[in-house]
Amino acid sequence: MTGPRIPNVFKIPELKEKILFTLLCLLLYRLGAHITVPGINTATLTEFARNQSSQTLFGLYDMFTGGALLRATVFGLGIMPYISASIFWQLVGAVIPTVEKLQKEEGGRKKITQWTRYLTVVLAAGQAWGYAVFLEGMQGAVAHPGLGFLLVTTFTLTTGGIFVMWLGEQITERGLGNGMSLLIFFSIVERGFPAIIQTVQYLGTGALTWPGLIMLAILMVAVVWFTVAMMIAARRIPIQIPRKVMGRGRISEGQKSFIPLRLNSAGVMPIVFAQSIIIVPGTLAQFSHVTWLRDLATQFQPGSWVYYVSNVVLIVFFTYFYTAIIFNPVDLSENLKKQGGFIPGVKPGTRTAEYIDQVLSRVTLPGSLFLVAIAMLPYLLLDKANVPFRFGGTSLLIVVGVALDTVQQMQQHMILRQYDGFMKQGRIRFRGRQRFM
After folding, report:
1. Which one of 31, 51, 61, 393 has the minimum C-beta count within 10 Å?
2. Residue 437: its pLDDT value, please?
3. Does residue 30 contact residue 186 with C-beta atoms inside 8 Å?
4. Which fold has domain 1-190?
5. Residue 341: which H helix or E strand, with range?
6. 436 three-state secondary structure
7. Other C-beta atoms within 10 Å of 141: how many?
8. The domain 208-391 is classified under which CATH number: 3.40.50.2300, 2.60.40.1250, 1.10.3370.10, 3.40.640.10?
């Protein structure tokens, strides 16, 4: 399926308004991500950010905010408090049956959305206070430390986090695409421009040659193509819906369809979970003077076999774990049975659930290995090819996934527009007479 053409997109008034509204919200978000909290010495923060490794909680968190956290801006917390709250309720729903029941009901989903907002405020306030204490403890970072600075910084960062959550919801409701994902998408993309400038500087110094750059470009295109293919790849399980008696002697025709089981049902979450665990020793060692803790942190640095083995095991484990949470074969089997559908050659009910679970387990393995390859790619490029930027990993999956989802929504709007135009202008014949719609 080809993507929508830009001229055609802006010819549709509704779609044009959605795109412009989304761009306006994203502009406000990026402006706020460059306004520093009052009372901060930006020179000290710049020096700290330059020496900060990505293998710490600060480095991982800062990637999702586009560098706003280490700059201590009003939107420094970004959308991560809301994402964390959403993941929390998703995990709770997999453990507590009452919450799981609410997630399946219309009114229950609205209630969980409200609870997610409340939890977002709590998480944002806690993270803001912790970051304010961290800034106050940094030598020369705060002009006037004290309770006043802690309160002002906590209030500013919390308010900024809530405003970012509101922006994301507005994009989802009135704009184009998923607002939360788009905010992270543009935060990651924005950091690509400094990497391009740094690459040009590497060419000038001779650290990177033109043949090496061309080979790198070919590799990047191939990796993006492979990532897109794996993101949309799915194992189709055929299903049959038998004929039904509609009344007055009418019988509906049987339908043939399929259940798509994606190879990468878990998305980017296994890499995020794995990295969050691996970087804990490095983060603790950074703020501690304990010798054994620093020695342990060195074992979990990129380049060591402990790091690579741990990363592979954790990614594979969390891929199966998160897939089991978001995909329930028993519920799918019950819904299929209620509709009268069945998988050819498989008995409805328990046998269908077992069959779907078996197929899902098999297709999840190549999906997990794909995530391992994408997660390891940035470190291989940095170590072997002397590339001045990080390509692959979490950022690549997010960018590709959000881009595919946004393009798909644009296509749906254009198809709906064409359908409406056909219904208004087309001619339909009824029993020999011509009627105009």
Report:
1. 51
2. 37
3. yes
4. Preprotein translocase SecY subunit (1.10.3370)
5. none
6. strand
7. 20
8. 1.10.3370.10
State which amino acid sits at residue 295: D
Say how far apart CA 101 and CA 92 lie, in whole Å.
Answer: 11
User: Residue 196 is which amino acid?
Assistant: I
Tell me: the pLDDT tens digits for 262-277?
888 888 888 878 877 7
Q: Residue 141's closest CA among 3, 41, 220, 53?
A: 41
Domains of the chain, residue spans: 1-190, 208-391
Q: Express each pLDDT in 382-393 by its tens digit.
A: 666 666 666 667
Which amino acid does the sequence have at 413? H
Nearest CA to 46 among 36, 56, 54?
36
Residues 238, 328: Cα–Cα separation, whole Å? 18
- Return the closest-CA partner of residue 267 out of 94, 401, 88: 401
> Does 208-391 match 1-190 at the fold level?
yes
CA-closest candidate to residue 315, choices 368, 363, 359: 368
Question: Can you list the alpha helix ranges (DSSP code H) found in 68-143?
Answer: 80-95, 97-103, 106-137
Q: Which residue type does 381 have?
A: L
Element (H, E) at 428: strand 427-430
Element (H, E) at 424: helix 393-425
Q: How far, CA to CA in Å, does 271 sit from each of 30, 167, 179, 370?
A: 26, 26, 22, 11
Report which of 374, 390, 22, 41 is spatially closest to residue 182, judged by C-alpha positions: 22
